[in-house]
Design brief:
Blueprint (H helix, E strand, L loop, with lengths): L1 H24 L5 E5 L6 H17 L3 E5 L6 H8 L7 E6 L5 H5 L9 E9 L3 E5 L7 H11 L3 E5 L3 H13 L3 E5 L3 H9 L6 E3 L4 H5 L3 E6 L27 E7 L4 H15 L2 H11 L2 E5 L1 H22 L2
Parallel strand pairs: 1-2, 1-3, 6-7
Antiparallel strand pairs: 3-10, 4-10, 4-11, 5-8, 5-9
Length: 316
Amino acid sequence: MKYAVRVSLLLLSVFLLGANSVSAAFPDRPVTIVVGFAAGGAGDIIARSVGLALEKELGQPVVIVNKGGSGGALAIGDALTRPADGYTIVGTISAALTLDTLTSKTRYNLADFSLLGMTGVYQEGFFCLADKPWKSMKELVAWARKENRALSYPSSVVFDKLITRYIGEKEGIEIRAVPVLGGAAIISSVLGGHTDFGYGGGFQSSYVKAGKMRHLAGIGSRRSPYAPDVPTLAEEGWPLLVFDNYFAFYASKKVPAEILTRLSEALVRAGNQPSVQQALAEKAGVYPAVFNAEESTKILEESLIRYRNMLEEMKK
């Protein structure tokens, strides 16, 4: 009996030593960030800026793989096919783990992943060319109703369709979503006059500053600090339409806890680097707030509950 106990303890110590050795050696090769957006958009800018700083924190190259489409679902699907060893990180908007799982048939949910952190609060909203006759979302809707014509806009995510469908049904107009793969395609569509307006997470800000575009409305719980004169959709007369979105980094729940901690701590340090903060604010157009794993998890769990309640209310 004593012999069996000693053998069991020896095996346990060997197992723990092996596990600690793996964690201590991590990472010993490149880490991949699978991004849920095509190159050129705000999400891609965020991931590349953070990834560059993360290389210094981890001591290994960070490879960016763009899997744009379906609001991040393609990136998540790609990541789920890879080993749960910590060498694959997913980077998408937070709605991919919250609202999208309530409005689409996803094969994953928030509980399948461990949040590593979030870098950036999207300054999301609607915009159009500066020479359009409308100056707010309310004016755009009134114009479409008066002209008796449908509106169109380019869409690369899921939940903007929920917003426009709700507005269309409420106001008695048709709003068509034209599928595209990312922010760069959205900008091209609006600039080229192919669609009436656009929806973005901040990448339109530089065009607004240049006088080429105009903000119409924000979708957050409060006005954007970058556009304090632009009303929210709630202020425009649609109080249920309140969405706060973040750029989230996460990994499979099956990744060893020690590796998750290593990644999370490195990610937060990377996100707080001055160069990253500047890139997020000036190039991606997002508010450069950084949240750790615990904070991110709490925010998204609360968002999931709020969105579920909101969707039920919108059905009434």
